[in-house]
UniProtKB/TrEMBL annotation:
It comes from the Eukaryota. Residues 3-238 form the NmrA-like domain. Pfam families: NmrA (PF05368). This is NmrA-like domain-containing protein. It comes from Polysphondylium violaceum.
Length: 288
């Protein structure tokens, strides 16, 4: 039987979909995050509760884990030293001796990124795990680092016509839920790659955004040095900009255009296409 599930980052652009999918399965979900106000705005169901959790405040960990036997774990976005807090947190999970499974939100091409250290720490912990390795989130357009620029009418990236098999965080939520609730051990100690149904380029994304918003959305194809300058000018930290640069290197090396069947395998349905995502999220704005 599955006990309480702690979803770390459950108010974030991916974690909120994990929570919603678990709710649909009738699970008791604890949302681990810092900001209770943000939690209330999510309008989760009554049984879903907030547990104050801050990686940087060890004092919050024990209470957040009370009664929990499964954890959806994620590193903070673009954190170049995720092990600083997650290593001691994994020790805490080990010491509790109550955790039956960790589902870790990793990333495709994880071995290229700092996040890979967390995969290694989890493997070494001896706790059963599954790693979800998604491609770029479509929700970067609506909740993530591309949102503000898109409001100004364009997208900037240093990747030319190289394609990415973007996946929706809604599908990631479905996949995470299947893994958290799987009791047969079928997916234990495995990494599962998940993507959308097809690779798509930035010019194609801008074409779809233009089509559904009725506005001309421009692609600003820049070289990596100029991209770093743009990101720094927007207030991103140097370490985050450098992390982002490694991510975009994998795009230019054509390591992001492969389609994987993880969503179909874990949820039984086809992943959402980028066109449907854009239609759902941007079509109405063309009417305003
Ligand atoms: N974006 C992509 O395209 C992509 C692709 C593959 C993998 N990933 C991975 O996905 C993860 C990011 O997910 P996301 O986009 O859902 O992030 P996000 O939207 O920025 O959400 C971050 C979540 O973490 C919580 N949080 C922030 N600081 C915290 C702290 N100190 N302690 C505990 N919780 C904290 C936030 O809530 P509070 O502020 O209330 O604490 C929020 O719930 C990263 O690990 C990234 O590597 C992203």
């Amino acid at each position: 039987m599955v006990g309480k599930i702690l979803v770390i980052g459950g108010t974030g652009s991916c974690g909120r979909h994990v929570v919603k999918h678990l709710e649909k399965k009738g699970q008791i979900v604890l949302v681990g995050a810092r900001d209770e106000k943000k939690f209330k705005e999510m309008k989760f169901v009554k049984n879903t509760t907030f547990r104050k959790f801050d990686y940087t405040m060890k004092v919050t960990w024990k209470c957040a884990l009370d009664g929990v036997d499964r954890v959806f774990l994620m590193a903070l976005p673009l954190d170049d030293k995720p092990e600083k807090y997650i290593e001691p947190f994994i020790d805490e999970l080990k010491q509790s001796q109550k955790i039956k499974k960790i589902v870790f939100l990793s990333a495709l091409n994880a071995e290229r990124f700092p996040i890979f250290k967390i995969e290694t720490l989890i493997k070494d912990s001896g706790i059963p795990y599954s790693f979800l390795r998604p491609q770029f989130f479509m929700e970067n357009l609506t909740d993530g680092f591309m949102k503000d620029e898109l409001k100004q009418g364009g997208l900037t990236a240093p990747v030319g016509d190289h394609a990415i098999a973007w996946v929706s965080a809604q599908d990631i939520g479905g996949c995470a839920t299947s893994l958290l609730l799987e009791e047969s051990g079928k997916y234990d100690n495995q990494a599962i790659n998940i993507t959308g149904p097809a690779p798509i380029t930035y010019p194609q994304i801008c074409g779809l955004l233009s089509k559904y918003t009725g506005k001309n959305v421009k692609y600003n194809d820049v070289n990596p040095t100029d991209f770093e300058k743009v990101c720094l000018s927007k207030g991103m930290s140097l370490s985050s900009v450098q992390y982002l640069a490694i991510i975009f290197e994998t795009v230019v090396e054509n390591k992001t255009n492969t389609v994987y069947m993880g969503v179909q395998q874990l949820t039984g349905h086809q992943p959402k296409s980028f066109e449907v995502f854009i239609q759902e999220n941007f079509a109405s704005s063309s009417k305003t």
